[in-house]
Amino acid sequence: MLPLILDRKIADVVYGSRFDSRPHRSLYFHHYLGNRAISIIFSLLYNQTLSDIEVCYKMFTREVLKQLVLTTSDFGFEIEISAQIARNKRWRIYEVGISYYGRTYDEGKKINWRDGVKALGYLIKFRAPMSWLGWGHV
Predict the structure, then answer these.
(1) Cα distance between residue 18 and residue 42, in whole Å
(2) CB–CB of 76/122 below 8 Å?
(3) Domain spans in the chain, listed from the N-terminal domain onward
């Protein structure tokens, strides 16, 4: 991720992707399906092809980081950050495959289906000003 920003200077934002054929632990199908659905809906709403917006690995330049404004305090920050990045048409976004060794619930995994439902709401919330829903402007 770092060489795309520092060495080659071709990216302002770099996302990791767990779906880019790198080694990964095979876990829950429903989590995979939910993540893919959220990423596809995000791509449709924001016209930005990111294969894994819920990935932890994200890297930005200082300029990008200084312009991000976070209002969420849960897993919604993944979509909030991604929405702000996608809506700023000046930033060059890249994805790179990462190795992923997911955890089971016994090992500390915390996300569940409720977080997926909330993510769908955040996709809409951060897409456009929606004051008629009481969500204000983004």
Answers:
(1) 16
(2) yes
(3) 2-133
**CB 103 within 8 Å of CB 109:** yes
Residues 59-72: tens digit of each pLDDT:
999 999 999 999 99
Question: Shortest CA distance to 19 belongs to which of 51, 50, 57, 54?
Answer: 51
3-class SS of residue 15: strand
Burial of 60 (0-12, 13-18, 19+ CB in 10 A): buried
Neighbours of 127 (CB within 10 A): 16
- The Cα 102–Cα 111 span in angstroms is 12
Give the whole-angstrom CA distance, residue 44 versus residue 105. Answer: 31
Q: In the structure encoding, which two tokens stand for residue 132, read together? A: 């008629």
Q: Give residue-wise pLDDT tens across range 9-34.
A: 999 999 999 887 677 777 788 888 99
